[in-house]
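input
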Amino acid sequence: MITDEIRAARQQLVLDHFEDEVRQEWDDVLSTFPHPHYELIPTMTVHDGGDQVRGYYHETRVAFPDQRHEIIALRHADDAVIVEFWLIGTHLGPLGEIPATGGTFRVRMTAYFIFDAAENLVCERVYFDTLSMLRQLIGGLNMRNPKNWLLTVRCLRGLLRMAGGEPHPSLVDTVEPELARRPAAAAATAEATAAEVGVSDAASAVAATDTPASTTTDGTATAAESVTATEPAGETVTAGETPAAAGAEDAAETALGASEAAGPPAEAGRDADADASGSPAPERPGTAR
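output
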């Protein structure tokens, strides 16, 4: 974390930088950098080193001799001072291939002043909307004058030519940083993962109980076969029944066969009486002949 002293020193340097630009004291502006470096995101261009940066200053002040600013807000980051401001000027000279329109502009911009670990200003990175600036410059033209029709066409062509250049590789070939995950998000992800594992374990347990019974390699019955062996007598006996159970069923079948062969005792007595007297014995209710 930066200290209050570092914040104050950075802020003063940035404010001096802005003021020196308005006064067009280029030596003073360049002295705020150990190595001057500008990155203009709208045009994807880079001005690196004292000579290139001076050329950038000259080009912009030929186009807008009265260029100035109004600061909106100034914020501090760990490695930067971020300034929002209005850039104001009058288009009195050519801006690259865009001819002078005589119009004025007031465009909202953001500049990142990047500092290294030694607290040196190493870059000014500027963001703004080129279309907003051009719309204001052309919008001030009197389109009833045929001369301004040609000027408008020339401005649009100039803008297209400037936009058609190759972007600087350093502004295109970026690398995504490794950002620390928020603790709350990490905890939520861990909880969701644990819940998924729990559901998976439960599903595996259910699948295990639904597995069909089978015989083990040593010929012993599985748990499902043991349950079958305990079913009531009279149903089919499985291969896994114990000898005791089989013997009990055989005894039950033998006793049942003997009882059927003997017939009901009452029926046998009535037949004996009929044979002795020569006439049938009286029927008993519910006895079938």
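quick obs: Residues 107 and 176 are 30 Å apart (CA to CA).
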